[in-house]
Amino acid sequence: MKFVSWNVNGLRAVHRKGNWHDVWGLKPDILCLQEIKADEEQLPDETRKVTGYTAYFHSARLKRGYSGAALYTRVQPETVEYSIGEDRFDGEGRLIAAHFKDFVLFNVYFPNGGQGPERLQYKLDFYDKFLAHILEIREKTGKKIIFCGDINTAHEEIDLARPKANEENTGFLSEERAWIDEVIAGGFVDAFRELHPGKTEAYTYWDLKSRARDRNVGWRIDYFFVDQALMRHVKAVDIHNKIYGSDHCPVSLEIEI
């Protein structure tokens, strides 16, 4: 089974630029998009209905044209949920959870911690709420958890081009990175780093204004975290930095489920 995750930074923009078909060349069984920045009815028909897939959308209620997530799947889920149980998070359209027979997939657009201490605290609060939520679901259902998306934090120095220069910037703050440590302690594996432990210059996000992608001055902030019990079934995790259209590129996970 192949999963692909991509922060599109505006789904209408990706479609307008002509990059919508590129991601389908990866042949995903499930495609997870973040930051779609639109209500479902605002999207081009081609992005709302994809032959062979069922599509689910979660758009922001509290601020239109902001945040948002989409999930396209060949395999029909048992149930789909859009909440982690707190309206200040759910109202920003940040999550789609697809429950399958043996696992639950969370497609998540985690908050950016920029624009001051209040927003950073919102991000940290979201982190804590989300982790508690997935741990509770794992305990109640007995199902394995996979979550993917734009986590908006680089975990280790190897995960960004200029770690020293960003030690005091959101996205690489010690308290943000510590949450990823908690995720790992909770039994989840950063699948890319597990399969590529020493790989450098492997980034998923680049600042557009400074043309950082041309120089590969980037950050790895888009992840697949896989339940420890599933890792032996993971066959590949790849970063697709030749696919354009956004300031992020897609990441894929292949797993035998």
Describe the structure.
The chain has helices at residues 11-17, 20-24, 45-48, 87-90, 117-141, 174-185, 191-195, 212-215; strands at residues 2-7, 30-34, 54-58, 69-73, 79-81, 95-99, 103-109, 144-150, 188-190, 205-206, 218-219, 222-227, 234-239, 251-255. Strand 7, helix 5 (117-141) and strand 8 (144-150) form a beta-alpha-beta unit. The strands form three sheets. A six-stranded mixed β-sheet has the order 3-4-2-1-14-13. Strands 5-6-7-8-12-9 form a six-stranded mixed β-sheet. Helix 5 (117-141) runs parallel beside helix 6 (174-185). It contains eight helices and 14 strands. The model has no long low-confidence stretch (mean pLDDT 97). With 257 residues, it is of the alpha+beta class.
Tell me the fraction of residues in β-strands, as a range.
25-35%
Largest sheet: 6 strands, mixed
Low-confidence regions: none
Cross-sheet strand order for the largest sheet = 3-4-2-1-14-13
End-to-end distance:
7 Å
The CATH architecture comes to 4-Layer Sandwich
Question: Which structural category fits the helices and strands?
Answer: alpha+beta
Number of helices: 8
What is the fourth-level CATH superfamily? Answer: Endonuclease/exonuclease/phosphatase
Radius of gyration: 17 Å
**CATH class (first level) name:** Alpha Beta
Element-by-element helix/strand order: EHHEHEEEHEEHEHEHEHEEEE
CATH T-level fold name:
Deoxyribonuclease I, Chain A
Tally of DSSP β-strands: 14
The overall pLDDT average reads 97
Tally of structural domains: 1
Overall geometry comes to globular
Q: What's the helical proportion of residues?
A: 25-40%
